Amino acid sequence: VDGVAHALEGPQAEALVQRLRAQYAIALVDEFQDTDDRQWAIFSNVFGEGPLARAVGLEPALFLIGDPKQAIYGFRGGDVRTYLAAAVTAELAPPLSHNFRSRPGVLAAIDALYAQAGYTDAFLTDGIAFHPVRPGTKRVDADLQRDGGP
Questions:
Q1: 120 and 140 inside one domain
Q2: β-pair partners for 27
Q3: Interior/surface letters 74-104, b for 16+ CB within 10 angstroms, e for the rest
Q4: Residue 134 structural domain
Q5: Rg (Cα) of the chain, in Å, rounded?
Q6: With a threshold of 0.90, does the pTM exceed it?
Q7: Model pLDDT for residues 104-119, shown as the tens digit of each residue
Q8: Coil, helix or strand for 89?
């Protein structure tokens, strides 16, 4: 990260952006909520709408996936405010309306918990809100069992 950030501040920055984009057509950053300002500047300048990408005439090709409620890497520089700032610039940010990882009962319990706290009042950082989701599958515990056991 340090080397790329430094190179993007140097005289060959535009050439570096062009070379990276020639090698990597798009960038997909998963767990974006754990990104810091320097990492965001790199992705924005190489794949997003940052000044270097604009200077060389490149179209944005950046996909960010994250959930600010899951930001856990503050101890190593991850900053949920970076996520929130990037979210403001997002052209298209479709919410995920279905959860395929959790059972329906777990989703209902989580929804009840956040509803009781007031969907936006449950967080210490402004700009973070809870959005209820629907189960992505109709599976029940019995579907995951064999001969009555896991």
A1: yes
A2: 62
A3: eeeebbbebbbebeeeeeeeeeeeebeeeee
A4: 97-150
A5: 20
A6: no
A7: 888 999 899 888 877 6
A8: helix
